[in-house]
Amino acid sequence: MVKEEPPSASKDLQELQRKLSLLIASVQSNSKVVSFMKSPAGQYLDRHPFLALNLLVFFAVSAVPVGFFLLLVVLTSLAAFLGVILLEGCC
């Protein structure tokens, strides 16, 4: 019997590294990213990567509660609108 060897971990890691480097290259070549990185704010964040990471995490984490709040506002407004329509149409 011939045993089939699973693909080696080093080949998988090399493939993952290649895909990741292609993704990074495509993001860095984006015209909007290039124009932002040439701005003073982009240059400052490039020199202070810890601050850039903190800002990224802050905005990503704060987007969830803001989204829930906006969803609550929309659903409450819709419920109030339907309630007014039903009460006014009924009486």
UniProtKB/TrEMBL annotation:
Cellular compartments annotated: Endoplasmic reticulum membrane; Lipid droplet
Transmembrane segments: 55-87
Pfam families xref list: Promethin (PF16015)
Membrane disposition: Multi-pass membrane protein
Chief location: endoplasmic reticulum
Example of a GO cellular component annotation carried by this entry: lipid droplet
Superkingdom as given in the UniProt entry: Eukaryota
Keywords: Endoplasmic reticulum, Lipid droplet, Membrane, Transmembrane, Transmembrane helix
PANTHER family: LIPID DROPLET ASSEMBLY FACTOR 1, PROMETHIN
Family: Belongs to the LDAF1 family.
Protein name: Lipid droplet assembly factor 1
